[in-house]
Specification:
Strand content: 35-45%
InterPro entries: CENP-V/GFA, Mss4-like_sf
CATH architecture: Beta Complex
Strand order of the largest sheet: 6-7-8-9-4-3-10
Number of domains: 1
GO molecular function: carbon-sulfur lyase activity; metal ion binding
CATH topology: Metal Binding Protein, Guanine Nucleotide Exchange Factor, Chain A
Keywords: Lyase, Metal-binding, Zinc
Number of helices: 1
Number of strands: 10
Helix content: under 10%
Radius of gyration: 17 Å
CATH class: Mainly Beta
Family: Belongs to the Gfa family.
Largest sheet: 7 strands, mixed
Order of helices and strands: EEEHEEEEEEE
Shape: globular
C-alpha cells in the first residue's frame, strides 16, 4: 500500500509506504484545539516509511503522561500534517484529512473517549447536503 497527501496549499507533500500500524481518533483537549473540532484522526507509520517534501513548522508540548508531543503543520496554510510522541520515537502519525485517499482506512481505536464532546456526533435528524448549499444567514432556515 502507498498513501500520499498534502497540505491545503500544496507546499507540503508526502508519501507513506505500507499499511499504518494503527488508525486512531483522539478526543484529548490538545487534539480538539489543534483540529478546531471534537477530535483528530491519524494513521501511525514508521518514520522510515514516510517521505516528506516541503518544510513544516512545529509546535511542542508536554502530554499529561510527561511525553513530548510535536505537531507539524504547514506555515503557509496551517494544515496539520503529522504528530510525533517521544513515547514512540521511531513513528509519526499522519492526519487522515491531509491524505489524498484514505478510503481504505478505518478507525481502529478511540483515545480519550471520556473527553469526547456531546456535539461531536451527528444525530439522525441533522440536515445533510451532498455539496455546498445555497443557504445564506439572512434566510434563517437552513432548509431554504
Amino acid at each position: 500500500m502507498k498513501f500520499s497527501g498534502k497540505c491545503l496549499c500544496g507546499a507540503i507533500t508526502y508519501e507513506a509506504e505500507g499499511s499504518p500500524l494503527v488508525v486512531a481518533q483522539c478526543h484529548c483537549d490538545e487534539c480538539r484545539r489543534l483540529s478546531g473540532t471534537g477530535h483528530t484522526i491519524g494513521a501511525m507509520f514508521p518514520f522510515t516509511s514516510v517521505t516528506l517534501r516541503g518544510s513544516v513548522n512545529t509546535f511542542k508540548y508536554r502530554s499529561a503522561k510527561g511525553s513530548e508531543v510535536t505537531k507539524a503543520f504547514c506555515a503557509t496554510c496551517g494544515s496539520p500534517i503529522y504528530g510525533t510522541n517521544s513515547q514512540t520515537p521511531d513513528h509519526l502519525t499522519l492526519t487522515l484529512g491531509s491524505m489524498d485517499d484514505a478510503s481504505d482506512l478505518k478507525i481502529e481505536v478511540v483515545i480519550f473517549e471520556r473527553d469526547k464532546p456531546h456535539w461531536d456526533e451527528l444525530p439522525e435528524d441533522v440536515v445533510s447536503f451532498k455539496t455546498q448549499p445555497d443557504w445564506k444567514p439572512e434566510n434563517q432556515d437552513i432548509n431554504s
